[in-house]
Design brief:
Bound molecules: zinc ion
Largest sheet: 9 strands, mixed
Shape: elongated
Radius of gyration: 30 Å
Number of helices: 17
Strand content: 15-25%
Helix content: 25-40%
Amino acid sequence: MSTSADTSVAAHTTYEPVIGLEVHVQLLTASKIFCSCSTRFGAPPNTNVCPVCLGMPGALPVLNRKAVEFAVRAAMALNCRINETSIFARKNYFYPDLPKGYQISQYDKPLAEHGYVEVQMPKPLTAKVAKEGREGRKEERELATKKIGITRVHLEEDAGKSLHEGFPDSDEKTAIDLNRTGVPLIEIVSEPDIATPDEAYEYLTRLKEIILYTGVSDCNMEEGSLRCDANVSVRPRGQKGFGTKVEIKNVNSFRFIREALVYEIARQVEVIEAGGKIVQETRLYNSHEGKTYSMRSKEQAHDYRYFPEPDLLPLVVDEKWKAEIAKTLPELPEARRARLVKEYGITEYDAQVLTVSKSLADQFEAAAKAAKNPKRVANLVQSELMGRLKARGAAIEQSPISMKGVAASADLVESGAISGKMLKDLYDLCFERNKDFPEVYEEEGRPQQSSDTSALEKIIDEVVAANPRQLEQYRAGKKTMLGFFVGQVMKASKGQANPQLVNELLTKKLG
Ligand SMILES: [Zn+2]
């Protein structure tokens, strides 16, 4: 899936891309950043507004303490240094969805700086392996850790929204909804450390995962809670200086960002190869065509005339406050993965899958802890659940068997009520019927593996009678033949027999 970007970039061996990302994340505060209006998504247009967020003359902003706490928590999770003093600044521009004519943001003194996000990328293939086509699947390739630097994290307010459809005269007019005006955002600016579209995709995935873990945003891209712009340039491989960069704006999924970057890198290389020059400009990505289009060139770029916001004091986050916020940081995905591997003996890769969201990891751990044998839950997830999901090409969120269901099945195996073979059959039924384990277990009449001694003894007699040569070997001292007989009895019982009981009865019988 990710190889298309890999190979197309690798094809431009004489050029290397340089990518930096700017991510806007909406904070989950109940009220806006400078007034007490609600931030609720989906309210009727222009109902969550007041003189402050409408930019009425004389209305004064009051900073929302919760927004600062959330921003600091996110910045800490992104390994940033929190600046004790940061300054709000006015970013001046004219646009219909910006009633004040400026946005309150932070400029030369941002809230936090010098962070990083770690990404795991498959190690480059050796030429030999690539040639022989033995690269294998991504999860089987060896991974290398890379740190993508974060230049800054700053606080700002969102603008309103222009509506182009869904109301009468929308073919002729544009309507403005100012509910979003003044909703708190953090902007996370990466260093130009990202080398490929795949790395950009990975960075965004990890970034979103970390933010979700902190609980400061729902990162819902459809509702605009997470938005991403990309800066990309290319340069001859080995050159120190950067090429001219192009900004790609308003791409609404990580997959589209990767596609837009692949297209844009190829476009820039083509322009340079043909003897042309890259123009510094903003481009939009059209996902239907898979192409970027020029939106405005540098000549039309804004001069924002930043200056300190006179209506707000410098923001001070002192050591005491910082320490209080640090206490609210949850265990982050990277640390959790390491712990899951250690505590439950699962693989790195499965730990990644299980920690894809905090809620899934919580469910897994709750189920594992509630079960009689936590490691068995982990084993079942790894061997029985993941395998079936992979075969169907489904994500773990689409699994018919919940973590609770896995735990219930693990307990049944643990107590000897069902055999491993029965569990496999029941899992197959769960996937066939798209139902959770407890439900299917009930539907099947709560099957039990056979502990009926007389029935088992009958099977054992038959098996022993049918295999005189093996019996002779066993009696001649080849005790490993016991395994053969257990296997035959299990087979004859169609996996329904309790292996432990079979073992006991056989030992007695053969003895
Ligand atoms: Zn307001």
